Amino acid sequence: MVVEKSHITIEQNTEYLKRYAFLEKACMRTLAGWLPGVPEWEAKNQMGLHVWESGASADLLYQRLRELRTYQPERNISEGLKTLARELDHAQNTAELIATVYLVVKKALLEAYRSHPEVTWSEFDNPTVKTTEKVLPAIERQVAWAEGFFATIEQNYPGWQAWRDYIAGLLAADGGVTGAEVPASAPQRPENHLLLLPWKECQRMKGWPIFDPSTDVEPDRKTEPEAHRLWRFKHYLNEMTAAETLGSILWMTPEMPWEYQYNVSRHLWDEVRHSQLGQVRVQQLGLKIEDVPQVVQIYNVMMTLPAVDQYALLTTVIEPNGMPEKSTNREHWEEIEDEISAAAVSYDWSDENFHIRWGKKWTPVLLETYGYKETPEEIAARTEAWLMENTPVKMQAKMALESHQGGGHG
Ligand SMILES: [Fe+2]
Ligand SMILES: [Fe+2]
What we know:
The protein is an all-alpha fold. The chain folds into two domains: 10-173, Ferritin, CATH 1.20.1260; 213-403, Ferritin. The protein has 14 helices and no strands. The chain has helices at residues 10-34, 41-67, 79-88, 94-119, 126-153, 160-173, 225-237, 240-252, 258-284, 296-302, 307-335, 339-369, 376-390, 394-403. Helix 1 packs antiparallel against helix 4 (94-119) and helix 8 (240-252) runs antiparallel to helix 9 (258-284). The longest helix is centred in the C-terminal third of the chain and has 31 residues, at 339-369. The chain is globular. It starts with 9 loop residues before the first helix and ends in a 7-residue tail after the last helix. The structure holds fe (ii) ion (FE2) (2 copies). One fe (ii) ion (FE2) binds next to helix 9.
């Protein structure tokens, strides 16, 4: 007689946790790669947050796995789950992306986290229970957002169901999130699902105004403080393109260590937050988000460079060059008693310190990993020269020039 086991063993527990972490990371990667490809502004903003949250949940699960003496959490992950992760990238539009990443994978993960305390020996495995309690609130909010938002867009993308059924079928064929369910038979792959990643051009809703570099004139801070402020926060709103750049960089550098991927996921969300401080401020100043021209050109032109060049350019050139202007703006806004603008830029400045620190840490590792012969100084000089030729944003060129005045490169 076979006795039904009441709880999973410690070995089964680590296998479950490995699969949870693998799927969180897969969602992080797919959402990052898709960030430039989603035209809906609300979804872009939410997905930016969820890239970071998925990374943070994977990181918490890795921590618990190390306590359970599993140091290579992707070792012996099933081929079925690896296929699922690869196939997630092959969505064709926002509806297929949300219907699979959120309404199949994240929803199944959510149910697994909820039931994990009853499945494991909770009395002995309390730290895992703590971990599942920590990762639950974020994924609950993500799925709730996706269900509400999906209802507003699904009619724009007819035919998404076949792709949803296929991805759900891949998960079922591998025994579900835990791998412990009776495997279903392998699903039929729908046709016409070529890989659209990495996105060469970032997508916006039809009819949204596109930035015209020839009309981008910086108003004088002292003599036209209001015009200067509005101009500056419109550029903040456009930091969405920095987040999109990081999404493609993250997707294109899977060979890099987890810590790098985790840092880039946070960097990505920070740039979405910088866009949001622009969004909040331009709305307070009387504009609608969809009235602000979108600087899609900077993403598109940077995508002509390899991922390593893009990362070095962003973190060792553009971001260091931008620091002095932030300090000047903070002083200026404090002087004219605009405490909201001063607060916004003070958090931006604080975040940028970490972005620059990560750039110093990871650029040499990227150069090594992808076989570059250049030093970090050489790639900074080369990509800065490229920027001066190619950027559509005069502010970036001006900051680069100013950073070289009075000696010393940031
Ligand atoms: Fe930023
Ligand atoms: Fe930044």
